[in-house]
Design a protein that fits this description.
Length: about 280
């Protein structure tokens, strides 16, 4: 490992990761009104595409700018045990977060709000069973699907940025890489209202805090197991929960306070991040 920061490589990586992301956010902001009823479909495709920008950036830098190759990129599966652990632990975190959210904002187990938003009169099965089936899919199916675009991010953030910050020391590298990852999301919050926050400035700050804590957790396990594949799986499991059943059961709450992206999410994630930050 190098004893000093590769400023040239990092500068190129950040530029190639941030500039296209900001450009896409500006485009989505400007065409958002015209998309009207197709907004969610277009946004989903656009955001999934943007997730590959950090990975593409890391590939370009490693291959063509610094020409260092991919020896320290963590391109290995690693031990199997951590996969099972995070597949259980991350959903448990969400259960805790939304159980606390439910103390302040009522869940909708009838799915009436969801059906109204989806324009359907009834769910394919009884609401409780429907919720159970969807939750099961977020445990088994969607994490694997989400791991694909997640790899686009993780190959950049944990496969390039984190190792390049390690000359600062493990703890600082984990914190700074998490903060940078969080800041990278801010154009979505500010320009297109990502996260659904009532105040975009406050929402951006809260979201950066959440992503920083998550980044510390993912980064620590990435370093411990030397596996960007594991990081991608963790990211996939997280997204499966964040954009899965919980958005259906909890359709209406203040995003600054409740849910994974609010203050409650920060409170629950903070001890996890501190534990892994201090773990030797």
């Amino acid at each position: 490992m190098r004893n000093e920061i590769d400023k040239k490589g990092l500068a190129w990586f950040l530029a190639l990761a941030f500039i296209p992301t900001i450009a896409v956010s500006l485009i989505l902001r400007d065409v958002g009104t015209d998309l009207a009823d197709k907004t969610m479909a277009y946004y989903s495709v656009a955001l999934a595409t943007v997730m590959f920008f950090p990975g593409i950036s890391a590939f370009i830098v490693r291959k063509f700018i610094t020409k260092e190759g991919f020896k320290d990129a963590g391109l290995r599966i690693g031990p199997k045990k951590p996969y099972l652990q995070v597949a259980v632990f991350i959903p448990l975190l969400f259960i805790v977060i939304y159980a606390i959210t439910g103390l302040f904002y009522s869940p909708d187990f009838t799915l009436e709000t969801f059906m109204a938003q989806a324009g359907i009169e009834e769910t394919p099965m009884e609401p409780t069973l429907f919720i159970a089936v969807l939750f099961f899919s977020t445990l088994i199916v969607t994490p694997l699907i989400n791991s694909i675009p997640a790899f686009g991010e993780e190959f950049g953030w944990r496969g390039y940025l984190l190792p390049k910050l390690m000359p600062l020391g493990r703890e600082k590298a984990l914190v700074f890489s998490g903060i940078i990852w969080g800041i990278w999301h801010m154009p979505f919050v500010f320009l297109i209202g990502f996260g659904g926050y009532p105040d975009r400035l406050a929402g951006g700050l809260v979201f950066v805090a959440v992503i920083t804590l998550l980044g510390i957790y993912i980064g620590a396990l990435t370093l411990k197991n030397d596996s960007v594949v594991l990081a991608s799986f963790m990211h996939g499991v997280f997204n499966a929960q964040a954009y899965g059943i919980w958005t259906i059961v909890y359709p209406d709450y203040n995003r600054l306070i409740g849910g994974i992206g609010g203050l409650i999410g920060i409170i629950v994630l903070l001890p996890v991040a501190v534990y892994y930050l201090r773990e030797k």
